[in-house]
Design a protein that fits this description.
Blueprint (H helix, E strand, L loop, with lengths): L18 E7 L5 H12 L6 E7 L8 H9 L22 E4 L2 H6 L9 E4 L12 H24 L7 H11 L7
Parallel strand pairs: 1-2, 1-3, 3-4
Helix pairs in contact: 1-2, 1-4, 2-4
């Protein structure tokens, strides 16, 4: 698969204002961690975005299969830890993207910086029951779907779009299935 993962880093002299993107899900142990890792890995060339993640009810650790699936896409999550969205509440964000329906309902504070809000409802792979290999396949599929969404997101001409159009474009990027 050819993707933006193979792009090289932008030269240091080129200053571009970085847009802060917060990815939210319930446990911050899988979907939002993968999204944070991928946007930070993919956007090394452009330097336009800086990814963060949090959960409404953070788990104790990042799921090992999320670490593995993201690692296969060159996004290292080995040092990531789940964190509560409350710890980021006072920080400004340009975008807040929820990755499950529950987080979209629970995490509805007034965010500093009046971010553009988006919702990409991914199914929770932790709920899948099967063999270890079947579970890994589900995590890999999820990571691939998030990768495609992130690639489309960072390709948006955010500097040229008004807030309403930008919000509509972000919503269109996400999957059509509803995730809990």
């Amino acid at each position: 698969m050819i993707s933006m993962l193979s792009r090289k880093r932008r030269p240091r002299g080129a200053a571009v204002p970085r847009r802060r993107v917060l990815f939210l899900c319930t446990g911050n142990s899988c979907r939002s961690q993968i999204a944070e890792g991928l946007i930070n890995r993919l956007d090394l060339n452009g330097g336009r975005f800086e990814g963060f993640s949090a959960g409404t009810q953070p788990a104790g650790s990042v799921h090992p299969l999320a670490i593995r699936a993201a690692g296969e896409l060159h996004a290292d999550l080995t040092h990531h830890r789940p964190k509560s969205w409350e710890t980021l509440r006072g920080e400004p964000f340009d975008f807040v993207i929820t990755l499950c329906d529950r987080a979209a309902i629970e995490a509805n504070p007034l965010w500093l910086g009046a971010p553009v809000i988006g919702h990409w409802p991914f199914e929770d792979p932790i709920k899948f029951r099967g063999t270890e290999e079947e579970k890994l396949a589900v995590f890999r599929k999820l990571a691939g779907e998030i990768l495609r969404c992130i690639e489309r997101f960072i390709a948006l001409p955010v500097e040229m779009l008004d807030r309403q159009t930008l919000a509509q474009q972000i919503e269109r990027i996400g999957p059509t299935s509803r995730g809990a």
